[in-house]
């Protein structure tokens, strides 16, 4: 009986050792996998911030690409439905509505294995207008539908207002620049390439009497946000508009 008891004890101890070893192995593998997922997500976050900071160079003609890790990070895009960005201009013949973007898009990086606890901007500002081209891109980070998401978009207007004078006559120029983000091809993804797409619209309208920039819900007609530099039109100067819309292609391959 003693021999049988010892044998049973040995089997039990061996089973416990095996189970503990399996648990340790599982924990180690799980920890390694989690560490890799966090590392991949952090790499993509840093890469997108670097892309955002490089937008002024991309606008000038530089193409930039980043590699996507072959892990758990997914890359895609979305189009904001029923959102339109437009510039409304008042001239002597009345108001003219110029649509600059009726399909604003965003690039999204998603990971279901990394938890982000807050909704925050990690690059740029949440404004309709900016006074620095470097802040045309904005990157949001948030948790949605079971995944942490990095959202990269360019849905805002750069505005520069300046005077031109010949010594006796002064005119005010309002330069407005908008960058359309346009995903061009999706297959993979393993690489994201940001490529300047050229001009989509170029207008000069002289002697304007009013100006409003709007973000509109096209389904309801409601103005979500607007910007109106009304003080410029009370100074007695001729005001001219220079409107430029360019495209930024994002090729996901």
Q: Note the beta-strand portion.
A: over 45%
The end-to-end span amounts to 70 Å
Q: Main β-sheet: number of strands, strand sense, barrel status?
A: 6 strands, mixed
Structural class by sheet pairing and helices: alpha+beta
Biggest sheet strand order reads 1-12-15-11-10-7
Helix content: 10-25%
Question: What is the number of helical segments per DSSP (H or I, 4+ residues)?
Answer: 2
Tell me how many strands there are: 15
Number of discrete domains: 1
Poorly predicted segments: 24-33
Query: Could you give the order of the helices and strands?
Result: HHEEEEEEEEEEEEEEE
What best-fitting shape do the alpha-carbon axes yield? elongated
Mean pLDDT, to the nearest integer, reads 88
Radius of gyration over all CA atoms, rounded: 27 Å
Transmembrane segments: 7-29
Keywords: Membrane, Transmembrane, Transmembrane helix
Q: How are the secondary structure elements laid out?
A:
Layout: H1 2-53, H2 55-59, E1 64-67, E2 74-79, E3 83-91, E4 94-101, E5 105-111, E6 120-123, E7 129-130, E8 138-144, E9 147-153, E10 157-165, E11 170-186, E12 191-205, E13 210-217, E14 222-227, E15 238-252
Parallel strand pairs: 7-10, 11-15
Antiparallel strand pairs: 1-12, 2-5, 3-4, 3-13, 5-9, 6-8, 8-9, 10-11, 12-15, 13-14
Keywords: Membrane, Transmembrane, Transmembrane helix
Transmembrane segments: 7-29
Describe the structure.
- The structure is a single chain.
- The chain has one domain.
- The protein has helices spanning 2-53, 55-59, and strands spanning 64-67, 74-79, 83-91, 94-101, 105-111, 120-123, 129-130, 138-144, 147-153, 157-165, 170-186, 191-205, 210-217, 222-227, 238-252.
- A six-stranded mixed sheet has the order 1-12-15-11-10-7, with no helix packed on it. A five-stranded antiparallel sheet has the order 2-5-9-8-6, covered by helices on one side. Strands 4-3-13-14 form a four-stranded antiparallel sheet, with no helix packed on it.
- It is of the alpha+beta class.
- The chain starts with a helix and ends with a strand.
- Keywords: Membrane, Transmembrane, Transmembrane helix.
- The chain crosses the membrane at residues 7-29.
């Amino acid at each position: 009986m003693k021999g049988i008891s010892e044998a049973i004890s040995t089997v039990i101890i061996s089973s416990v050792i095996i189970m503990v070893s399996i648990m340790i192995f599982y924990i180690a593998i799980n920890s390694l996998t989690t560490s890799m997922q966090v590392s991949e997500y952090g790499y993509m976050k840093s890469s997108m911030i670097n892309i955002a900071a490089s937008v002024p160079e991309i606008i000038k003609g530089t193409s930039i690409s980043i590699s996507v890790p072959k892990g758990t990070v997914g890359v895609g895009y979305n189009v904001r439905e029923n959102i339109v960005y437009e510039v409304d201009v008042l001239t002597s013949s009345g108001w003219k509505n110029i649509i600059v973007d009726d399909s604003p898009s965003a690039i999204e990086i998603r990971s279901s294995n990394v938890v982000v606890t807050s909704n925050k901007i990690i690059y740029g500002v949440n404004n309709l207008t900016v006074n620095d081209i470097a802040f045309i891109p904005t990157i949001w980070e948030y948790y949605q539908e079971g995944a942490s998401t990095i959202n990269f978009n360019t849905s805002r207007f750069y505005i520069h207002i300046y005077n031109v004078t010949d010594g006796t006559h002064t005119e005010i120029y309002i330069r407005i620049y908008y960058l359309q983000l346009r995903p061009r091809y999706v297959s993979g993804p393993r690489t994201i390439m940001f490529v300047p797409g050229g001009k989509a619209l170029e207008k000069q309208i002289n002697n304007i009497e009013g100006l409003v920039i709007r973000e509109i819900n096209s389904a309801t007609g409601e103005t979500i946000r607007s910007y109106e530099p009304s003080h410029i039109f009370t100074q007695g100067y001729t005001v001219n508009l220079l409107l430029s819309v360019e495209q930024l292609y994002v090729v996901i391959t």
